[in-house]
Write a structure and sequence with these properties.
Number of helices: 23
Helix content: 25-40%
Largest sheet: 7 strands, mixed
Structural class: alpha+beta
Strand content: 15-25%
Length: 697
């Protein structure tokens, strides 16, 4: 693309959230009528190429208002309202973030979260706002460049629908030059009395020696010297291509946006090196004789550039640097800066840990606090990935475990042993207070999965003494909300509750927080190879959100009118006296769908323990503390012995206990016992429990 002798039109545009017509597009770019074509013809030509390369999506105004709905919801809307398809106001939106070079136009498309008041165009914004947007746009491009170089996934492919990335190759060639220098071939020269190594064969054979005391003395020594050949064909070709790359990137603005240094070499025009076939042949011959890996790689890159540039049909009219899937950029950055422990391909912090690190390595590196082995046997291969079990299907009496499983976005742990379950969502949530409507929010499937992730790790969290869990969607904050103060990372947007998932187990799960994250802050952390999970913790503590999302919030402290009833052994009951504080023990049972723990157990404030042995019926009543503690066999034995029982047999590895205060021991008649059993059996949920599970009524 030659920018020297043509007028260049350049402008900023917004991804997804702004509706453009061809007329508004031409106006923003500042297109002018020319002798060859009208302003509208010019706009039509650019529009067609953008549409062909999937940079924009064609739509009408009503479709645009629904463009972020999923395909099923959009189809339903169109069926309900036929005018959506028939709307005559035609236009398009950008489905791309980055820089587009098309003919004589440079289009710079920034992410959708950069909003301007009253939907004004970038050119109409004040200078301070323009500077801030350009600064962040530079951040965005540098992040894309880094992720594109380490992620070969097609979702981050900079050259849409093309295998060859022309702009990416130009950037690569310049960065290789900054790192490895210019391609050079050394030439060997023979000098008389030079500073190089003496060539004794040549000195003896070609010079005259002076004999003194039967010893030869040579006045003219032949020395070997090597020096760079400044006129080497491949050195000058490398310089020419580098100058071409630097000039293109500088004139389009990418050089400064990416923070790259201009190339100061004086390269000859590429045409000076012969036609394309001759240049390619020369490079191929040099590659065959070059065995230094670094230099060979440089030659291969130059050959690729020459071959693809000359054979690339659109290279002179259309180039891209950016991505059609900025949501993947958002997710990858969040995984990195929040130090994902599940499967982080872009890990920057804790670099000594591999992808999906083993629990044992997390303990070794003091990321998880150690516990005694009696509490939990740690498998050598256990990871956060392996802890989420697959579904099991029993068909025709055979067991099947299909592939595919729940995959959380981000699992992280901060220095205060808070456990984070985060889902990075590139959504701009929109609400209408008057209509009480909400749009562009994570769907019900996302909500269900976030609660399911917390349930999947519940045993791990109990065993390793995690007292707080932060379960949250993290979405980008709008540009208009960004704060000027340093270290501002997040704002609480709201939270999501769903009783069906939160109250289906004895651990009442907290809500899913909706946190708006400032892209400017986390992109800066990413570019500096820093993590900021501790910054997130500080903000949440300051906003008092940690306390609100404590996974062990067991009760609201009020009297819910519920009583916990549990079977107790005679040996234990015999030791209980009025006024004592005791512990009630129970264990987990899973038998063909039976639940081991009643979902409302932590809403109980009263306790009735009953025993029926040798026809003697007694009940123990008291005030229940609605907290559950997990104890292992050794801890249980110790607590039982403290109660005066030395021969109590334990049949399970782990137990749960709840404390009962101010107990009284009372006798029960047969009638009272039958009435208690009837109450228990008639109360909801108890029929699902095993015979010896504690019941709620």
């Amino acid at each position: 693309m030659n920018f020297e002798n043509q007028k260049i039109y350049s402008a900023f545009f917004r991804e997804i959230k702004t509706f453009y017509t061809k007329e508004s597009f031409a106006k923003i770019l500042g297109l002018e009528d020319s002798p060859k074509e009208s302003k509208q013809q010019h706009a039509d030509r650019i529009y067609s190429k953008l549409l062909e390369q999937n940079v924009i999506k064609s739509c009408n105004k009503k479709q645009f208002n629904l463009n972020e709905l999923n395909s099923d919801d959009l189809k339903q809307k169109e069926e309900d309202d036929p005018s959506i398809l028939n709307n005559k106001e035609k236009g398009f939106y950008f489905n791309f973030v980055g820089v587009v070079f098309v003919d004589d136009c440079i289009l710079k498309v920034y992410p959708k979260y950069i909003d301007l008041p009253d939907d004004i165009d970038f050119s109409e914004a004040d200078n301070e706002t323009k500077v801030r947007i350009e600064k962040h746009f530079s951040q965005v491009l540098r992040v894309i460049k880094i992720l594109s170089s380490i992620n070969q996934d097609s979702s981050l492919n900079q050259q849409t629908q093309e295998k060859y990335n022309h702009i990416g190759m130009q950037i690569f060639l310049l960065e290789d030059y900054y790192r490895n220098g210019i391609y050079q071939n050394k030439e060997t020269i023979i000098e008389t009395n030079g500073e190089g190594e003496i060539d004794w064969d040549k000195t003896i054979n070609e010079t005259t020696a002076i004999i003194k005391n039967n010893k030869p003395y040579y006045v003219e020594l032949q020395t070997i010297n090597t020096r760079s050949n400044d006129f080497d064909y491949f050195k000058m070709l490398h310089e020419s291509i580098l100058c071409q790359c630097s000039q293109t990137l500088r004139k389009t603005g990418l050089l400064s946006y990416l923070g790259m240094t201009p190339c100061e070499l004086n390269g000859m025009p590429l045409s000076s090196f012969g036609d394309v076939n001759y240049i390619k042949y020369s490079l191929q011959q040099e590659i065959r004789t070059q065995f230094v890996t670094k230099k060979r790689n440089q030659l291969v890159s130059l050959l690729t550039y020459i071959t693809e540039t000359t054979g690339y049909k659109s290279s002179n009219s259309f180039k891209l640097f950016g991505t059609n899937n900025f949501e993947h950029i958002w997710e990858s950055v969040c995984k990195s800066v929040f130090d994902d422990l599940y499967l982080n391909k872009h890990r920057l912090g804790n670099s000594q840990l591999k992808d999906s690190p083993k629990i044992s390595s997390l303990i070794k590196n003091s990321i998880i606090k150690n516990i005694s082995k009696d509490d939990r046997d740690i498998s050598d291969n256990e990871t956060f990935k392996s802890m989420i079990e697959n579904s099991s299907w029993t068909i025709d009496n055979d067991l099947y475990t299909p592939s595919g499983n729940l995959t959380p976005d981000i699992i992280s742990i901060d220095e205060q042993q808070n456990f984070y379950i985060l889902d990075a969502k590139y959504y701009i949530i929109k609400t209408n207070k008057d209509a009480k409507s909400i749009e562009n929010q994570p769907g019900i499937q996302d909500v269900l999965k976030q609660f399911a992730y917390e349930k999947a790790y519940s045993s791990f969290l109990r065993d390793f003494r995690f007292f707080n869990t932060v379960n949250a969607f993290i979405v980008p904050s709008l540009f208009s909300k960004w704060k000027e103060e340093e270290n501002k990372i997040t704002f609480q947007k709201g939270f999501v509750t769903y009783n069906l998932m939160q109250k289906s187990a004895y651990e009442h799960l907290g809500p899913i927080q909706v946190l708006e994250i400032v892209p400017e802050f986390i992109f800066d952390k990413f570019l500096k190879s820093e993590v900021c999970i501790s910054n997130l913790t500080q903000i949440l503590e300051k906003q008092k959100l940690i306390n609100h999302i404590n996974r062990f919030i067991n009760s609201d402290g009020g009297d819910n009118g519920l009583t916990l009833a549990g079977f107790m052994r005679k040996k234990y009951v015999d030791k209980i006296k009025d006024g004592m504080d005791i512990h009630f023990f129970f264990y987990e049972v899973f038998n063909h769908g039976e639940l081991q723990i009643h979902p409302e157990i932590l809403r109980c404030n009263k306790f009735i323990g009953y025993e029926e042995e040798n026809r003697q019926k007694r009940k123990i009543v008291g005030d229940l503390i609605p907290e559950i503690k997990k104890v292992n066999v050794s801890e249980l034995s110790k607590m039982i012995k403290e109660s005066g029982i030395s021969d109590y047999q334990n049949t399970h590895e782990n137990y749960y206990c709840m404390k009962v205060q101010n107990v009284k021991v009372e006798e029960m008649s047969d009638k009272e016992f039958d009435e208690l059993m009837e109450k228990i059996n008639q109360s909801r949920g108890n029929f699902l429990l095993s015979k010896y599970s504690p019941k709620v009524f």
